Amino acid sequence: DADVTQTPRNRITKTGKRIMLECSQTKGHDRMYWYRQDPGLGLRLIYYSFDVKDINKGEISDGYSVSRQAQAKFSLSLESAIPNQTALYFCATSDSRDRWNSEQFFGPGTRLTVL
Amino acid sequence: DAKTTQPPSMDCAEGRAANLPCNHSTISGNEYVYWYRQIHSQGPQYIIHGLKNNETNEMASLIITEDRKSSTLILPHATLRDTAVYYCIVRVVGSGNTGKLIFGQGTTLQVKP
Asked: Which residue of B45, B97, B103 is in closest CB contact with A102?
């Protein structure tokens, strides 16, 4: 079973709709991240959370919100989706106790299309 | 976190060593060099990281120059499954580590038969 799962894997929606992308992890990590990737570009950080009560904006947080419902769950919401939010979205986790390695583990991604 | 510069693409023959360069001339003393790769829209995968000494694991070797301004990721015997985008990332770890990864555009490595 995958350690980091994302649902849905693919989603097509219309402009103005509210969308939630979910991420769950079984690694027991305290830190979770949301990234987006546009075609031909690297990943960009949207939000990150160091624990349930600690949520921080990344470099491109406008138009997005997040919720850390539990240590294992981190959801990304698009309150009113727009076409330029069409992208591949990745969730990742890391363990703050692994201070000198800090490897991030990524989920399989959610492909979102906003028409 | 320091910025990195990588060539946009490289080719390598199957079975040969793939040497992927990365320039990070503004790296600070407390910043590590990390390498991740992304195979065809899958989630990125950690490969290796290092501070100043050369490092080797089951996937690759990392060679960091003495002045730490550049590094090279070496895949000793590239296979077709190593075709991917390779990202070189420089970041702080340890105390004060925010955990954020800042991705550039990476190097697309094409391994050819």
From this structure: B97
